[in-house]
Amino acid sequence: MTAVLPHLIWIDCEMTGLDLTTDALVEIAVLVTDSDLNVIGDGVDVVIHATQGQLDSMNDFVREMHTSSGLITEIPNGISMSAAEEQILTYLQSAGTELGKSPLAGNSVSVDRNFIARDMAKLNEYLHYRTIDVSSIKELARRWYPKTYFAAPAKTGNHRA
């Protein structure tokens, strides 16, 4: 059976913190999949410029995370928010998605969605209002299928979008 809305738009963001009033969106990665989770195209991963003041205001935990991942050294040379948004929209259109038809998917994406709504209005409008949050699925699996949940492989890799 073919899905009526076959695409999922997977997004992961990195910020200088979680406070919408003070923190900056500094990286966004986007992948489109079909309903069987086959990746469409190459995706987009862009680093967004932030001011030195925004970087200086990061707490120690976030600073260490972005230092360990190497992101901190890329931020000063990042692109503008509008250029990042245009790259993402170009990729989404080339992947066959349509305005307002594909849900946002990812891990704990409500925070990402808030920053996208604040900083990338066109992208926010492009996404369907529904969200698929993998962290919700993980929380339910932990409660309903603890043996399976705790047998899952440990997360590896650095903390990047």
Protein described:
The chain has 161 residues and is of the alpha/beta class. It has a single domain, classed as Nucleotidyltransferase, domain 5 (2-Layer Sandwich). Helix content is 42%, strand content 24%. The chain has helices at residues 52-56, 60-69, 71-74, 81-94, 109-119, 121-126, 134-144, 146-151, and strands at 8-15, 25-33, 39-47, 102-106, 127-133. Strands 3-2-1-4-5 form a 5-stranded mixed sheet. The radius of gyration is 16 Å and the shape is globular. It starts with 7 loop residues before the first strand and ends in a 10-residue tail after the last helix. The relative contact order is 0.19. The model has no long low-confidence stretch (mean pLDDT 94).
Using only CA atoms, what is the Rg? 16 Å
Percent helix, as a range, is: 40-55%
Shape: globular
Number of domains: 1
Determine the CATH superfamily.
Answer: Ribonuclease H-like superfamily/Ribonuclease H
CATH-level-2 architecture: 2-Layer Sandwich
* Strand segment count: 5
Low-confidence stretches: none
Secondary-structure element order, N to C: EEEHHHHEHHEHH
What's the pLDDT, averaged over the residues? Answer: 94
Roughly what fraction of the amino acids lie in strands? 15-25%
Between the first and last Cα atoms, what is the distance in angstroms? 32 Å
Q: Please give the count of helices.
A: 8
Strand order of the largest sheet: 3-2-1-4-5
The helix/strand class is: alpha/beta
**Major sheet description:** 5 strands, mixed
Examine the coordinates and then state which fold CATH places here, giving the name of the CATH topology.
Nucleotidyltransferase, domain 5
CATH class: Alpha Beta
